Automatic annotation (TrEMBL):
PANTHER family found in the cross-reference section: AURACYANIN-B, OUTER MEMBRANE PROTEIN H.8
Protein name in the entry: Azurin
Domain Blue (type 1) copper residues, every copy: 68-179
Position of the signal peptide: 1-23
Metal-binding as UniProt keyword: yes
Annotated Gene3D superfamilies: Cupredoxins - blue copper proteins
Region feature Disordered, mapped onto this chain: 25-48
InterPro entries in alphabetical order: BlueCu_1, Cu-binding_ET, Cupredoxin
Keywords: Copper, Electron transport, Metal-binding, Signal, Transport
GO molecular function: copper ion binding; electron transfer activity
Pfam families: Copper-bind
Length: 180
């Protein structure tokens, strides 16, 4: 009887050791090991433009040997509301002083945008404050092309574009017409 008792105890111990040793891997937690005071940041999601209408627009600064004669080769651009506009701006100026950009503003604000862009200076990239801006290209040096993308407003209307780099370029302006 004593042998059976010992055999039973040995069997229980063996079974217990088997279950304990087969416990598998250590359980992991989804909780971070350290709690920090860092704020959560949300990753910016790229808008889905798969079904969005796209308009490819090419505008050139052309016109001559003097600052006063420079102009955009188009004075009107027409797109539909909500269109993704892929713009290429090429500066065909020859003189090193012929540095230009293309800034889109609400109608009636192009002169103010040009003035405020000049006051913003190089540190502000010659751009007016954002309340006047719809979109803007980077500055283009003579012979340089720059590209940008923006989405046309969601409502029909007339907007303007102008050069905001300080220079005598009264002809460098135009209209962006957004249609339904």
């Amino acid at each position: 009887m004593r042998a059976m008792k010992q055999l039973g105890i040995a069997g229980l111990l063996a079974a217990l050791m088997f279950f304990v040793s087969c416990g598998g891997e250590r359980e992991t937690s989804d909780r971070p090991e350290k709690i920090t005071d860092e704020p959560l940041t949300q990753r910016q999601q790229e808008p889905d433009t798969t079904l969005q209408e796209v308009a490819e627009v090419n505008i050139r600064a052309v016109g001559g040997e003097t600052l006063e004669s420079m102009t955009y080769d188009q004075d009107t651009i027409q797109v539909k509301v909500g269109t993704l506009v892929k713009l290429t701006f090429t500066n065909e100026g020859k003189d090193p002083k012929m540095i230009y950009n293309l800034v889109f503003t609400r109608e009636g604000y192009s002169a103010q945008a040009a003035q405020k862009g000049g006051k913003a200076g190089a540190s502000g990239n010659y751009l007016p404050d954002s309340s006047l801006l719809l979109a803007a290209t980077p500055l283009a040096l003579p012979g340089q092309s720059v590209k940008m993308e923006f989405t046309a407003p969601d409502s029909a209307g007339v907007f303007e574009f102008v050069n905001t780099y300080p220079s005598e370029t009264p002809l460098m302006k135009g209209k962006l017409i957004v249609k339904e």
